[in-house]
Design goal:
The complex is a heterodimer of chains A (about 425) and B (about 950). By secondary structure, chain A is an alpha/beta fold. Chain A contains twelve helices and 18 strands. Chain B has about 950 residues and is α+β, with helices and mostly antiparallel strands. The chains are: A alpha/beta (about 425), B alpha+beta (about 950).
Chain lengths: ~425, ~950
């Protein structure tokens, strides 16, 4: 029994602590307004307050804390990307993940379970070898594994040679991990609020006022709020919000669905992904199997689930793990993915002087949460773009300097 | 001594007493009747303990008998988390409890309940991570205690399939509302599907009591069901669950091993209401059950719920339950009525005249265990002094059964999935629903109607509205039904906190009142945050029995109304379904060319190319390299034959055909002469190379364009997409699977083809390289294209798909004296590499532009527009970032690198190898690699980091490696 829990058992009254700023009025002016109280928005606020002494900060959230894609993603953490810029960025993030619970004193239940991505074609083998070579070169644990090694890593994976898509090889990423997604945003929000940041839920930004190329205020459903700077961190609505500031982002938004089964006793440790049959599966620490796949085929701002995706995810999951036929589906849901042309985020400065972008998070936003908190806060505080996010500037699309991660994202998560 | 709880006939509408069925529970043989569920058969044998709870491993048993709660989850050999009150018994069925360590009756993990005060809400966020890295040690401990049943890893699903169905009206729910709605809808002439999840139509009429005599329910039920069964317009599906509502009444209905996908023009949701438990200390003890559960046990399964009972009620339904208990021979010790001033209906009046102790304004404050500690032994009854508070004086009443009737929640799941809005009416203390989408209606108790006549009238009204929308009904819509009952069946606060806790709000997750309240005190006040922080409603029953109480508790703790607090989103599916259902028969179709079986007969090893199978090489796997070598030699020196049926084929016809290709591909096509083929390179808007093929012009208005095997469908879709915008006068057809094709290549190709093709002049002068002709080959109408992917004299012959095998056979026969031999994709890869041709997708990536891959020659500089042109123009002004170059490795001792190995410059990654192979023609390894422009000079060197980090020096050479002046392909 850890000491941390003793006080709960030994005190007669529950030692409640208000983790977040209680509902209150908006001030007339904040030094920094952060739009969106997801992992990124709260992470940025946390770092501004703790490491840069900027505490006159409001996080404005149209719904509830962490209710957007932070709540909807499937909590995959990895850094086995393809480009040098991408690997460097996510590698740093994975490092920060390792210490996150202790950083903000809130258990995010990080588990380094590893990630196995399956190749069912020689084209995939080539592409995985490329990723493995780049990763290894940059100190990320990633290697091409053969059928024998796969069978040892995941003994209950269906390896039949007469399968419709036999497994030829895999990309094993020992640094792959998972964490409790909600805890990340709660930990950051609590840490930020403890230092004076205000969290305002059910507060929707409806317009952005720009004066002489600078943001002067945001208009919300609860009134006008003046601000010295604005950071937008609204995955799923990036282009809509940027549009309020007159910024056009090269983003198309697609629903991304996932589903979860009832809890069962543990039998799958790593995260297993097959871009070819469009599915990934992992088992949570509660025992549920989380199953996800590719985005919907058409852009849409709606988080409804579809029967078609339920059918295709189930069929694909059973291709890999036939025994899941007896697992019972508990719920299916959707989030909205802001897809950029090169499958990399858009971070940093914008055409509006004091308006900062943390956007274009497609299917890769959760794993980047800690590094975004660090780097975006540094940007806002110093007004200098940190090297690690410089490649992800919006301007890259004008300079033909895309950071193309198409080969390392999509259904593989 | 075993207690037999089985009641005599006529109790037990679902069981067949003539058929005894023996099964086992916890390895003990149990006897039941056909029609029994596991839970009812066990209850008949006085076995009430079914499972252990998720967190504290508390003993749990029958709660609802409706297949709705996690308490009744048991382990079947290949079906964990099976609902004991849903699963029928069958001979030899092996049933075990689940989630225990040791035995079901003595679960060692039950000790967790004793330390529960040290495990506050969300305790795992609060500890276990110090010092750094500690969680990795705790995680396995938690993992092994989480989860419920065990999955059988060797399980193979049996056959599950799917069927589409279409109806005018779908009625979900076969209770009185559903039956009446189906009948009223069918009266208009509409085709009606009635879906009911139970074995026997009639819903609550099968167990609930609507009059003191206890005969009305059965009478009404039999009459309605008889009319439904006699109505030819109604298809009634029993034991079928409508497991979701998707846009436009798209309904997944699960019935046995089939998923019916039903599209209904109108849907009427008569889904009823779910009875809710009361919340007090030890309300989860086996023996404590819903009033409706006791009624179901008695009426459906002829099982007496116990020997002596107390009824806890907040409405008149509890009095009906008391009557049913008495009928079943149960001694009713007391009726504890939460109401201060109950307004009795006829049944309650009748009960109050029977001399049973009725304690008005009282509550069951706590339940106590019996000697076994696994079942209810007595209840502590106290007077209510204030909302949720009881007096200190208590009365203990011994009983083995406690029935709870304190209110209902409308079954809102499907309605909310459809976009309906859930609110809360403070007067009736009940959730209410509104804002159903178009063509979707609700009726019956889900609308808050409880009196049987009201329910039926409401359903008939909904049916008339629905059929009017179909334009088949001329009946007038009756006005909305006025409620007959005067007092709501919902008690506003059947919640009694206890100093020792264990008043369970959520049984699935073992959440007590304090857990919910403390979550709000920690700052998690939004109902979604309460759920996520406490896990309330995240368990298998998805909040069915906890959402109402949670909303009330959260509203109270945060000084909001219940309506403001709301409930969490109801996601599909409605009830947990096996993945086998939505998976169905797996559908991953394979594409095989018309010559597929000839390849197999010739010993080909097949590889997958998209959905296609293609021959990789011909021969045994251990001799792979030799086989490929032999095939390459034969093409270079003689003649070979490869199946190219998998290449995409797209017909583009119309007056604007040339203009269309001009905009779509990078080259110029307007001036392409008829009878000629032209290389067609495709870029996307970002100027990235995404496909290639040849465009063959057969006449002014007709092009036949090939595409890569993997890219064909994408190219076709992209053509349609662009022309939706351009609106050019062209017809685009994907004819990939309409044509089979071969490439006959090698110095002797002409000689062999000439034997079979007499209506085309094959001479080099009449039919030059990149010419196209139509004629016959072996008597088969054919398109013949002179192309040279492998770098030798070659003809692609495309014939109607069904004639592929005949063409193949004819060419093999005709080439017999030349020793013609088939070659596979592997040999072709090597041949094309020697010739310096790139493969899109292998030698290109998501950023490759034509200039980088030495294809600038295939991009027209003269056209006003093509897809990607603007970008390429801009890119042309920027310095090149990398080049795809040919290289050789001269050092015979150096290891041959693999495709995707990196090109490095010291510690820097500067490029990568895309293709590499040992060239028999050149006698050394050759390949293609991306290198920085400053390394791209012919004769320059660069370094490849090969396996194990061994550095290999490569030398840049001009492409192609073979036959630089193209003499061989132009023979």
């Amino acid at each position: 029994m850890p000491f941390g829990l003793l006080k709960y058992g030994l005190s007669s009254e529950y030692p409640a602590q208000q983790h977040f700023s209680p509902p209150g009025d908006l001030k007339k002016h904040y030094d920094v307004v952060i739009i969106g109280a997801g992992g990124h928005g709260t992470g940025i606020a946390y770092h501004l307050a703790k490491y840069h002494g900027i505490t006159n900060v409001a996080i404005l959230e149209k719904s509830y804390l962490g209710g957007g894609n932070t709540a909807r993603n499937t909590a995959v953490i990895r850094s086995n990307y393809l480009t040098e810029e991408g690997v460097r960025f996510y590698r740093e993030s994975v490092k920060l993940w390792q210490n996150l619970s202790n950083e903000f004193d809130y258990n995010v239940m990080l588990e380094n379970r590893g990630q196995l991505t399956l190749a069912h074609s020689d084209a995939a083998v080539r592409s995985f070898r490329w990723r493995a070579e780049v990763n290894k070169h940059m100190g990320v644990r990633s290697e091409l594994v053969d059928r024998q090694q796969i069978a040892e890593l995941v003994p209950n994976l269906r390896m039949a040679e007469d399968a419709r898509f036999p497994i030829m090889a895999g990309l094993w990423h020992a640094d792959g991990a998972t964490a409790r997604h909600d805890a990340v945003v709660w930990g950051y929000a609590r840490g930020a609020c403890q230092r004076g940041v205000e969290l305002h839920q059910l507060t929707e930004v409806q317009d952005v006022e720009i004066t002489a190329g600078r943001v002067s205020a945001v208009r919300t459903n609860r009134g006008r709020v003046g601000c010295g700077a604005v950071v937008q961190a609204v995955a799923g609505a990036s282009s809509v919000v940027a549009n309020m500031a007159g910024i056009k982002l090269p983003i198309h938004s697609y629903p991304l669905q996932a589903m979860v089964t009832q809890p069962y006793k543990p039998l799958l440790t790593p995260h297993v992904s097959s871009p070819h049959v469009h599915v990934y599966v992992h088992q949570t620490s509660r025992g549920e199997f989380v199953i996800g796949g590719g985005s919907d085929p058409s852009p849409l701002y709606n988080t409804r689930a579809t029967l078609e995706q339920r059918e295709s995810l189930s069929a694909a999951a059973l291709e890999l793990f036939p025994f899941l036929a007896q697992a019972r589906l508990l719920r299916q849901w959707a989030g909205t993915t802001d897809m950029t042309p090169d499958y990399s985020p858009i971070m940093g400065l914008s055409p509006v002087e004091n308006y900062y972008l943390d956007a274009g998070w497609g299917t890769w936003g959760f794993k980047a949460t800690p590094i975004c908190g660090v780097s975006m806060a540094e940007l806002v505080a110093t007004q200098k773009v940190p090297d690690i996010i410089a490649p992800f500037a919006l301007e890259r699309f004008y300079r033909f300097e895309q950071i193309n991660e198409a080969g390392a994202t999509a259904a593989s998560h | 001594m075993t207690v037999d709880n089985r009641l005599p006939s006529p109790f037990g509408t679902l069981i067949d007493r003539s058929q005894t069925v023996e099964f086992s529970f916890e390895k003990k043989t149990i006897s039941g009747y056909a029609g029994d569920t596991v839970a009812s058969a066990l209850a008949a044998n006085n076995q009430w303990l079914l499972s252990r709870s998720f967190k504290y491993h508390r003993p749990r048993g029958v709660l609802t008998m409706a297949g709705q709660d996690a308490n009744s989850m048991v382990q079947l050999p290949s079906d964990p988390n099976a609902l004991a009150d849903r699963i029928d018994i069958s001979p030899g069925l092996k049933v075990m409890g689940q989630n225990y360590s040791g035995s079901l009756t003595r679960d060692r993990n039950a000790v967790l309940g004793l330390v529960s005060r040290f495990l506050p809400v969300a305790f795992y966020y609060k500890a276990f991570f110090k010092p750094r890295g500690m969680w990795q040690k705790w995680a396995p401990f938690f993992r092994h205690r989480a989860g419920l049943g065990r999955i059988d890893q060797n399980y193979q699903a049996d056959y599950h399939d799917k069927q589409y169905q279409f109806y005018d009206v779908a009625v979900v729910g076969g209770g009185p509302a559903g039956l009446a709605a189906a009948l009223a809808a069918a009266d208009s002439g509409a085709s009606v599907l009635l879906v009911d999840e139970n074995v026997r139509l009639g819903g609550s009429l099968n167990y609930a009591r609507n009059d003191a005599e206890g005969t009305q329910s059965g009478r009404v039920r039999d009459a309605l069901v008889a009319r439904v069964k006699a109505n030819p317009k109604i298809v009634a599906m029993s034991e079928a669950t409508c497991n979701g509502w998707f846009s436009d009444n798209w309904l997944p209905i699960i019935c046995r091993k089939r998923l019916y996908k039903v599209r209904a023009k109108q849907t009427i949701l008569c889904v009823g209401a779910i009875e809710q438990p009361a919340i007090f200390h030890n309300n989860d003890l086996p023996g404590v059950m819903l009033g409706s559960a006791a009624q179901r046990l008695i009426k459906l399964y002829a099982v007496r719920p116990g020997q002596s009972a107390v009824v806890l009620t907040g409405n008149n339904d509890g009095y009906a339950v008391a009557l049913d208990l008495i009928d079943a021979g149960v001694e009713v010790k007391a009726i504890v009525d939460l109401r201060d001033a109950p307004v009795y209906d006829a049944i309650a009046e009748h009960v109050s005249s029977l001399g049973i102790s009725v304690k008005v304004g009282h509550a069951v404050y706590a339940a106590k265990r019996n000697a076994s500690r696994l079942h209810l032994g007595s209840v502590d009854v106290r007077k209510i002094v204030d909302r949720g508070h009881c007096a200190t004086e208590s009365e203990t009443i011994n009983c083995d059964t406690l029935c709870m009737s304190v209110g209902y929640t409308p079954t809102y799941q499907l309605i909310c999935q459809a976009g309906g809005r859930l609110s809360y009416d403070d007067d009736s203390a009940m959730f209410t629903l509104s804002d159903c989408p178009e063509n979707c209606y609700t009726a019956g108790s889900v609308n808050g109607y409880w009196h049987l006549e009201d329910v039926i009238s409401d359903a008939e009204r909904a049916a008339i509205i629905a059929t009017q929308a179909l334009d088949v009904d001329r009946r007038e819509v009756p006005s909305a039904v006025v409620h007959q009952q005067t007092q709501s069946p919902n008690h506003p606060w059947p919640i009694f906190a206890h100093p020792k806790g264990c008043e369970f709000v959520d049984f699935d997750e073992d959440l007590q009142i304090a857990d919910i309240v403390n979550a709000t005190r920690d700052g998690y006040q939004h109902i979604q945050l309460v759920k996520r922080y406490s896990t309330c409603g995240m368990g298998p029953s998805q909040g069915r029995h906890s959402a109402l109480a949670t909303a009330r508790l959260v509203a109270d703790a945060t000084q909001r109304t219940v309506a403001q607090t709301g409930v969490t989103t109801a996601r599909p599916p409605f009830s947990a379904e096996h993945l086998a259902h939505s998976a169905g028969r797996s559908f991953y179709p394979a594409r095989r060319s018309n010559m597929h079986y000839r390849h197999l007969e010739s010993g080909a090893q097949m590889l997958q190319a998209g959905a296609w199978y293609r021959p990789a090489y011909y021969g045994q796997a251990p001799a792979r390299e030799d086989c490929i070598q032999r095939e390459v030699d034969n093409v270079r020196n003689n003649v070979g034959l490869i199946d190219v049926s998998t290449l995409g084929g797209i017909e583009v016809r119309g007056v604007d055909a040339g203009e269309f290709l001009n905009r779509f591909y990078t080259f110029g096509f307007l001036k392409q002469p008829v009878g000629r083929a032209r290389y067609a390179l495709l870029t996307n808007e970002a100027g990235v190379v995404i496909d290639d093929g040849v465009a063959c012009r057969f006449d002014e208005q007709h092009y036949y364009v090939t595409a890569t095997t993997g890219g064909a469908d994408r190219v076709y879709q992209s053509m349609l997409k662009w022309n939706a915008q351009w609106r050019l006068d062209v017809d685009i057809a994907n004819v990939t699977s309409a044509y089979a094709g071969v490439n006959i290549a090698g110095p002797n190709a002409r000689k062999v083809l000439a034997k079979l093709c007499t209506d085309i002049d094959l001479s080099a002068a009449a039919f030059p390289y990149m010419g196209v002709r139509e004629g016959t080959v072996a008597g088969i109408a054919a398109r013949v294209i002179r192309v040279g992917f492998v770098g030798e004299l070659g003809y692609e012959v495309h014939v109607p798909q069904h004639a592929g095998e005949a063409l193949w056979d004819a060419l093999i026969n005709a080439g017999e004296d030349c020793a013609i031999a088939p070659f596979g994709v592997e040999a072709q890869r090597l041949l094309r590499l020697e010739k310096g041709h790139i493969i899109i997708g292998q030698d290109t990536d998501a950023m490759s532009n034509p200039t980088e891959v030495q294809m600038g020659w295939a991009v027209s500089k003269l056209k006003p527009f093509f897809v990607g042109g603007r970008t390429l123009q801009e890119l042309g002004r920027l310095p090149l970032k990398r080049c795809l170059v040919g290289f050789v490795i001269d050092d015979p001792m150096a290891p041959i690198p693999l495709e995707s190995h990196l090109v490095v410059d010291g510690d820097k990654m500067t490029g990568r190898v895309t293709s590499v192979n040992y060239s028999p023609t050149l006698g050394k390894p050759i390949g293609l690699a991306y290198v920085p422009p400053n390394c791209a000079e012919t004769g320059g060197n660069f370094t490849i980091k090969s396996s194990g980090g061994v550095l290999v020096v490569a030398t840049v050479v001009d492409l192609p490696f073979y036959d630089a002046d193209n003499r061989r392909q132009e023979l």
